[in-house]
Design goal:
The complex is a heterodimer. Chain A is an alpha+beta fold. Among the domains of chain A are: about 90 residues, no CATH class; about 180 residues, no CATH class; about 110 residues, no CATH class. Chain B is mainly α. The longest helix of chain B has about 45 residues. Classes of the chains: A alpha+beta, B mainly alpha. At the A-B interface, helix 7, helix 11, helix 14, helix 15 and helix 16 of A face helix 3 and helix 4 of B.
């Protein structure tokens, strides 16, 4: 349970003519993690070469490429689709021959028409943009072109300017600026140019169009509208095609991808002229099943053998081996890092502790229930195994949140009908009265949790080193971890003997024994000193880490800090929405008052939803961080290679 | 001097001003540590986003690195809570 699945290294050797059935069997079983063969000069590999793809690989790849261009146009994804049934391979292969080219042609035609129309739309929009400045001018635009004796100026000006030469001009002021069109005899051109330059003239080209600008714009707008309608129609046609063929296309994709995978897998094998060798890993308990399957597929002509694992040389792929309850938490482990093969797998511990921390932070029956409903409701939206794992984690966390809500007597920041069983977190907001939160007790509760959690981490550290290391280093590393535990508890005993604290043993009453030191202090010193010696023996540099004992234990105070602030936000929302908005209106209900009450209800709902989201993010991240930073750093390294067996789960097709 | 200043103050007023001082102390504790966390997370956060854009696999790790300075503000919050209650 606390260690990964046991693996066996397997070598499969067989003549090349049974390669295809062996590959198919490996793919069907989905157990064999292939170690890629790399050509090298080692003696035992002399004469072996990397294999070549199976026959037909090129055609399959080509088909797959064509298919992907269609599914790409439809933006189809297999995860978004629920299969209605499985299609047989032989049936599908025939359909691929007949239907795929037809669908491809239809899609291509639609796509090229769409591109054409989109280009046309862009062109029209550019024309309209060029015409817009001239839209208020009633003159025919064709009159502004093609003169030898006249020059036309058109553009925007910073301010109105007197051109001062004989000319025809049109001037308009608008939000976009001062627009000027002036037709000037050629001989005054330079003079006018200078004057316009002084007025910060920005020339724009005169569109080459017949008739007044306004008329042309309306003509183009009509064309735009028709294009828009055509585009819409194409979109509906594409949608219709998509909904008609999506399952077929995805099934084709699955079939062809699997065929491509199978055809290309010899690139990972070692081959000679007549035989091939596949090297890889399988979970030990499946070895006999794999052997039987391969023997059946090859007619007894394949040779399957188990090799011993070479410690320190082989990188063993890691597959989790957890009970069902802890399985979703593997997602959180993979975010950090997969355990190494020789390492303890703390998934189960995290699966238990993470929801408890989450509940301690967001201990509220209302929020817990909301998140529980959400974790079931979101199942339709979030597909894929990772999404499902995340929702399972959320479900566990929200159940824990409800449980701690009952203990804290909290529902949406209100009190439940019983007093808080754990130290209360209710604040004194809106003159509610009462004692206020029991902060010292809560804080010490969290410190206790921290001490236990960290001690557990160190104990796992001792076990890890016992399992992984050898010789004198093994003993030193184990003792160093023990040293950390002794230093932490020694400091604790000394603190207890100096200050009385709630929820902690009071050791202040002991009389001084030697040199003014009481018995608990002496015990504390006797724990700290050898502890430090153990740590130094492992690595003297670790001494600078000693203050981290304090900071890591105090870090668990976030369980109170974030929790109480979440309660505070909830109570403030209640006070604003109910105490300040709704209650004053209830004394004397009028129509206007009813509206105010409705506003109050909306404020309350929005506020509580926001606080739920904040609580979920805060509770999730903070309790995750306590696992990753405070817990894992004590024993966990990670960095294992993921077990990735050759094969794929067929959802849409079958052999 | 001190005696003169206290003339005209009732015990209630003194108590109220003490409560006010506590509140100000708590505010400084949360506010300054909040700013400190923000400053630290600013640099880490932007680097984290950059790293995630390069390689999605590091998301978990950089998320972790980003929330590490959160500890500062949480200590501030703890101090504030202990001051007030």
């Amino acid at each position: 349970m606390l260690s990964p699945e046991q693996m066996s290294r397997v070598l499969i050797a067989a003549p090349k003519d049974v390669m295809e059935p062996v590959i198919s069997e490996l793919h069907r079983q989905r157990l064999f993690h292939i170690e890629d063969f790399v050509e090298n000069d080692q003696e035992e590999y002399a004469g072996y070469r990397i294999g070549v793809p199976l026959e037909g690989a090129r055609e399959i790849s080509k088909d797959l490429l064509r298919l992907r261009s269609v599914t790409g146009a439809f933006s189809l994804r297999a995860e978004d689709l629920d299969p209605s049934g499985k299609i047989r391979k032989s049936q599908l292969t025939a359909q691929i021959e007949q239907e795929l080219p037809r669908i491809e042609m239809e899609v291509e035609e639609l796509l090229s028409r769409r591109t054409e129309l989109e280009n046309h739309v862009k062109e029209l929009e550019q024309k309209i943009e060029a015409l817009t400045p001239f839209s208020e001018m009633r003159a025919d635009l064709s009159l502004l072109h093609g003169y030898r004796t006249l020059t036309v100026f058109a553009g925007y000006l910073a301010k109105k300017v007197d051109i001062g030469v004989p000319c025809e001009e049109y001037f308009s002021e608008s939000k976009k600026g001062n627009f000027l069109v002036a037709v000037v005899p050629v001989e005054y051109r330079q003079e006018v140019e200078r004057k316009l330059l002084d007025a910060q003239f920005q020339a724009i080209p005169v569109p080459d169009e017949p008739g007044p600008a306004k008329e042309r714009i309306s003509v183009y707008k009509v064309q735009l509208e028709t294009d828009g309608k055509d585009l819409e129609e194409i979109a509906t046609q594409i949608d219709a095609l998509k909904s008609r063929h999506s399952e077929f296309l995805i099934a084709c994709d699955e079939l062809l991808s699997i065929d491509a995978q199978k055809a290309e897998v010899p690139l990972r094998f070692a081959t000679t002229d007549h035989a091939f060798i596949a090297d890889g890993w399988v979970p030990s308990h499946t070895l006999s099943g794999l052997t039987d399957g391969i023997n059946a597929a090859s007619g007894g002509r394949a040779f399957v053998t188990e090799l011993p694992i070479q410690k320190g040389v082989d990188v063993v792929p890691v597959e989790y081996d957890n009970i069902n309850f802890a399985k979703p938490t593997q997602f959180l482990m993979d975010i950090y890092s997969r355990p190494k093969y020789t390492e303890l797998d703390p998934t189960l511990v995290v699966a238990i502790v993470f929801p408890i921390f989450f509940g301690l932070i967001l201990g509220d029956v209302g929020y817990g229930a909301l998140l529980l409903v959400a974790s079931f409701g979101l199942r339709k939206l979030l597909k894929g195994s990772e999404g499902k794992m995340l929702l399972d984690i959320m479900r566990n966390a929200s159940i824990s949140s409800i449980f701690f809500g009952i203990l804290f007597s909290e529902i949406f920041g209100f009190r439940l009908p019983w007093p808080s069983i754990l130290p209360s977190r209710h604040l004194n907001i809106g003159g509610e009265g009462g004692h206020g939160p029991a902060i010292p007790e809560l804080m010490i509760m969290c410190v206790w949790i921290g001490i236990i959690h960290i001690t557990a981490g160190r104990i796992l550290g001792i076990l890890n080193h016992a399992q992984q290391d050898h010789g004198s280093h093994r003993v030193r590393a184990m003792l160093a971890n023990l040293g950390w535990i002794m230093v932490m508890w020694g400091i604790l005993v000394m603190i207890w003997s100096a200050f009385p604290m709630p929820l902690m043993p009071d050791l202040t009453g002991f009389a001084p024994l030697v040199m003014g030191l009481s018995l608990p202090v002496i015990i504390g010193v006797l724990m700290v000193v050898p502890g430090v010696v153990f740590i130094v023996r492992e690595s003297a540099l670790e001494l600078v880490e000693l203050p981290s004992i304090l900071s890591h234990v105090l870090s668990y105070a976030r369980l109170v800090g974030v929790g109480v602030s979440s309660v505070a936000i909830a109570m403030v929302i209640n006070f604003i929405a109910i105490g300040l908005i709704i209650e004053p209106q209830l004394e004397n209900i009028t129509i206007f008052g009813a509206i105010i009450i409705a506003v109050g209800v909306v404020v309350w709902i929005i506020g509580q939803i926001l606080n739920t989201i904040l609580g979920m993010i805060g509770g999730g991240l903070q309790s995750l961080r306590l696992q990753y930073v405070e817990f894992f750093t004590k024993f966990y390294k990670g960095g294992g290679k993921k077990y990735n067996p050759f094969g794929e789960i067929r959802r849409f097709t079958e052999d | 001097m001190v005696g003169e200043e206290l003339v005209g103050l009732t015990p209630e007023m003194i108590e109220a001003s003490q409560a006010g001082m506590k509140a100000i102390g708590a505010a400084i504790a949360v506010g300054s540590t909040g700013l400190a966390s923000a400053a630290a997370e600013m640099a880490i956060g932007s680097a984290a986003v950059g790293a995630t854009a390069e390689n999605k696999d590091v998301f978990g790790l950089v998320l972790l690195l980003t929330v590490i300075p959160e500890t500062i503000v949480i200590f501030g919050l703890v101090v504030a809570l202990l001051l007030i209650f």
